[in-house]
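Input (structure):
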């Protein structure tokens, strides 16, 4: 059996990324009910709001689901307390040191997965005792690695370096890219952007429509002096790019970013002044569909591609 399916007790080795302002209980429960692993993104939630989403998710699905916790965000202790109190059994951590919280989470019977973007931190995560890692390539949306290593290069390097399951992320939004990730050695895939445009996503309709109308080259990694983030082009992204070209320091970028910029864009629908985090795969997303259909379409294309690959292989040997 697939090690990730076995670890999480899910049907398909497909994880929905815990995206800020996009992945609330509706999306997480829909993905879990469809046979994948739905993830609630705690990064945009106060502890009380997270508790509400967890409780609603419990009522909406009997299947496993998890919580994504960016470790550099405020209120981490309170967030961890809520997760433990609510009996959540799967946590994905990111943007911080996994050694700080992994032991406590595992002591409470929680499966821990950490998101990394290079071999150094993959080894640190394994040393911290996580059960699996997400290896996220440069193509991914949201906060990203400074090294700008692509998924195709990253996955085989990470797979060779660790002895725990590896989940591939970054530029994966179809069955064909899922097949490619498995060919590179991944045990499962984590998909963000393709689920950001799901009907159940909490993203603003204007953001979803901007994603599906985007083209090649419409995203760019920005703010490397702060925390690198891949952004969809708009007036805010242009202002950041201009400031960086002029040598803006960390304080200037923080001033431009301000507060609640991501909420303004992705959740409230200001397509020019908001921060629009999305992956390169957005240029290959063309419609808004239910999460169940997105997952099933990806898996059907994966199986079709796998058959074609085997048929081609049989013809060439």
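Output (sequence):
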């Amino acid at each position: 059996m697939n090690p990730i399916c076995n670890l999480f007790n899910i049907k398909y080795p497909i994880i929905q990324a815990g995206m800020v302002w996009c992945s609330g209980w509706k999306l997480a429960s829909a993905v879990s009910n469809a046979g994948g692993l739905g993830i609630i993104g705690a990064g945009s939630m106060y502890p009380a709001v997270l508790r509400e989403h967890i409780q609603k998710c419990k009522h909406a699905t009997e299947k496993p689901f998890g919580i994504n916790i960016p470790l550099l965000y405020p209120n981490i202790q309170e967030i961890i307390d809520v997760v433990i109190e609510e009996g959540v059994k799967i946590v994905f951590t990111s943007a911080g040191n996994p050694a700080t919280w992994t032991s406590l989470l595992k002591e409470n019977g929680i499966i821990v997965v950490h998101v990394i973007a290079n071999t150094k931190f993959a080894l640190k995560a394994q040393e911290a005792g996580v059960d699996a890692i997400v290896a996220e390539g440069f193509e991914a949306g949201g906060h990203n690695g400074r090294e700008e290593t692509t998924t195709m290069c990253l996955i085989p390097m990470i797979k060779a370096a660790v002895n725990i399951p590896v989940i591939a992320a970054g530029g994966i939004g179809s069955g064909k890219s899922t097949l490619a990730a498995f060919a590179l050695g991944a045990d499962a895939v984590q998909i963000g952007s393709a689920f950001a445009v799901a009907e159940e996503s909490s993203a603003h309709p204007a953001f979803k429509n901007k994603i599906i109308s985007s083209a090649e080259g419409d995203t760019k990694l920005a703010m490397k002096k702060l925390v690198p983030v891949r952004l969809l082009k708009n007036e805010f992204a242009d202002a950041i790019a201009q400031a960086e070209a002029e040598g803006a320091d960390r304080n200037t970028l923080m001033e431009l970013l301000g507060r609640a910029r991501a909420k303004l864009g992705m959740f409230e629908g200001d397509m020019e002044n908001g921060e629009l985090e999305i992956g390169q795969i957005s240029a290959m997303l063309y419609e808004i569909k239910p999460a169940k259909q997105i997952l099933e379409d990806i898996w059907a294309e994966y199986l079709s591609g796998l058959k074609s690959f085997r048929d081609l292989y049989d013809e060439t040997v």
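Notes: The longest helix spans residues 291-316. The longest strand covers residues 65-70.
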